[in-house]
Amino acid sequence: MTRSRAGYGALLVGLLIALAVALGLAVSFGSVRIPVGDVWAIVGARLAPGTFETWWSAARDSIVIDSRLPRALTAAVVGASLAMSGAVAQAVTRNPLADPYLLGVSSGAGFMVVLVSVLGIGAGVLGVFTIPAAAFIGAMAPLFLALLIGGRYPQPTAIILVGVALAQIFSALITFCILVLADDQHVTSVMHWLAGGFGDARWSTLIFPTVALVVVGIALMLSAQWMDVLQTGDDGAAALGMNVRRFRVLSLLAVSVLAGAAVSVAGGIGFIGLLIPHLAGFIVGTRAIRLLPAAALLGAVAMVAADTVARSVSESTEVPVGVITALVGAPIFVWMLSRQYRRLEQ
Predict the structure, then answer these.
(1) How many CB atoms within 10 Å of residue 56?
(2) In 10 A of CB 202, how many CB atoms?
(3) Tens digit of pLDDT for each residue in 1-28?
(4) CA 17, CA 230: separation in Å to the nearest integer?
(5) How far is Cα 95 from Cα 238, in angstroms, rounded to an integer?
(6) Cα–Cα distance between 172 and 243 in angstroms, integer?
(7) Which of 199, 204, 295, 339 has its CA 20 to 30 A from that of 346?
């Protein structure tokens, strides 16, 4: 047991180091290449003034602190949020194909962004927070509708099925608004948002998803043992004194809040919440107390890396991060599935 804990602790330390390296490279790469050593010196000088003798220009300081660092940290927070919420969604539904957008969070958020961008409803009311606020409100709409409609039925799958139906409705509304109401400029901006990215990341927009990750993440970690109990089946969990229905609803609420906070600043980025929990489970096992931290760190590393690739793959334009995660994540997911099925056949 001690050796197992030591190995798990070493893994988390390794993931933290990998995240630090990924963040350093993410801030270093760009149209203006800044050495990684300079990046950490600039950050260290801001955290502890007087620690480093300034040898860099004010322009480089601004690039690191005001532009690239908040973007890289936002990518890390979003990746951790999607991976952790995906792991919880798969655990409480006992569905390996569940992801954070299970209850239509991404579609609801996209619809509200379309309303703000195309129809101008509420545009500019909150300044730079207008789109994130609209996206989060839209993300919560299908969640509460799913709970309101599906919560009337005793079957736990009713909420999920209603959420899936609502996701299709909001997706249809998005398509209608884009095809019928939007002009070319609006179509371009909305499509970029729907594909996901961090081009609008700022220190101010980083606050909300970070607070959501910390608060909801702590709550999920405290309830990790009940997620493991739920794997015995609803009847077995109820026999152990668990209110299965209430726990599942609260867990799905936590999943949607995390995913909604992530979508509000990054758009709909796929495959991180679906793939990373499987990868983390392959490495550390399926116990929630181990799975959730590992998934969060892996998700953060993967998202920072994907954003770095998205910014670097083309000099003329920035590729949406969702395109990168889909192109890389889909083949890996298929490979993992084929590997698992081959094991079952042996």
Answers:
(1) 17
(2) 16
(3) 555 777 889 999 999 999 999 999 999 9
(4) 33
(5) 19
(6) 36
(7) 295
User: What SS3 class is residue 285?
Assistant: coil
Structure tokens that stand for 339 in this block: 């590997």
DSSP state, residue 318? P
- Model confidence, pTM: 0.90
In order of 59, 101, 167, 276, the CA distances from 97 in angstroms are: 46, 11, 16, 12
Q: Is the pLDDT of residue 47 over 70?
A: yes
- How far the first Cα of the chain sits from its last, in Å, is 30
Q: Which residues contact 13 (CB under 8 A, 6 or more apart)?
A: none
* Contact (CB, 8 A) for 166 and 138: no
Q: Is 346 in a helix, a strand, or coil?
A: coil
d(CA 108, CA 168): 10
The tokens of 174 are what? 């998005």
Could you give the residue ranges of the DSSP H alpha helices within 48-125? 58-62, 69-93, 105-114
Give the pLDDT confidence score for residue 125 in this predicted structure. 63
What domains can you pick out in the chain, each with its CATH number? 2-31+62-341 (1.10.3470.10)
Per-residue model confidence (pLDDT) at position 346: 60
DSSP state at residue 316: S
Report the alpha-carbon distance of residue 194 to residue 82 in Å, rounded: 16
Residue with tokens 């709970």: 147
Contact (Cβ atoms closer than 8 angstroms) between residue 77 and residue 300: yes
Return the residue matching tokens 């300044």.
Answer: 127
Classify the phi-psi angles of 48: left when phi > 0, otherwise alpha if psi is within -120 to 50, otherwise beta.
beta
Closest CA to 19 of 73, 84, 81: 73
Contact (Cβ atoms closer than 8 angstroms) between residue 37 and residue 320: no
Place of tokens 């909001």: 170
Contacts 24+ apart (CB under 8 A), 331-335: 332/275, 332/279, 333/271, 333/274, 333/275, 333/278
* DSSP structure string for 112-166: HHHIIIII-TTTTTTGGGHHHHHHHHHHHHHHHHHHHHHTTSSSTHHHHHHHHHH
